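User: ABC transporter ATP-binding protein, Anaerofilum hominis:
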Amino acid sequence: TPIIEIRDLYKIYNPGENEVRALDGVSLQVSQGEFVAIVGHSGSGKSTLMNMIGCLDVPTAGSYRLNGQDVSELSDNELSEIRNREIGFIFQSFNLIKNLNALENVELPLIYRGLPAGRRRELAVSALERVGLAGRMDHRPNQMSGGQQQRVAVARAIAAQPPLILADEPTGNLDTRAGARVFEIIRGLQEEGNTVVLITHDEGLAKKAGRVVRITDGRIDDGQAPGGKEIF
Ligand code: ADP
Ligand code: ADP
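Assistant: Predicted structure for ABC transporter ATP-binding protein:
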């Protein structure tokens, strides 16, 4: 069953004279349990597509169903609720809260989900164990290496066991060794049955995913349509 169903999606910035078609008729399906990398050069439309998939912005036209629900025309509040319920985000820049320790950072999104304190603690501890940080729960971000901070961010993304993990250049700020470790954790998530969408400009990284979707000038070729071309 598809978790992501995008049909003929357009995102047009500055409509009129100086319009930019950041997404120019994108169709994409991602099935439950897939690990898909969306790869493209700078300016190809990756961030724009990531913002659509992540329900951080709405398209100019087209439809998007996430986990069966049409999310292409929701209000900001509704989108925020969908994000919280359906998606675990991993960003390039970790985005941890600096005066909270690792455990508190991971627990934070669970509060918005209305889980009781005991359950929050249980899920957060288990997620931190999963990323190899059982011994760092009371460390604040500035007491950890970049690799450790990103693993806290991974734990935060997976703690509530959301249907979709969305990772935007998750290794972009890490050295080779720490990046490889974070990537292996993300790949492991898929092996455990999670759906993972990775956004990257890094071809080498993308090739390690289960499926590579290339975006060029706001158009994609998802390698599945007959002849290797999307029809739109
Ligand atoms: P990528 O993430 O692959 O670098 P983006 O999605 O950021 O690509 O950008 C795709 C295109 O849309 C680029 O031409 C970029 O200049 C343009 N663009 C992105 N955001 C905006 C915006 N807020 N206003 C106008 N143009 C934008
Ligand atoms: P990782 O492989 O998880 O990135 P490292 O091997 O780079 O971890 O770091 C080893 C130890 O050094 C970490 O446990 C951490 O406590 C400490 N450390 C590394 N970098 C930093 C940093 N920038 N600030 C504070 N502590 C750091």
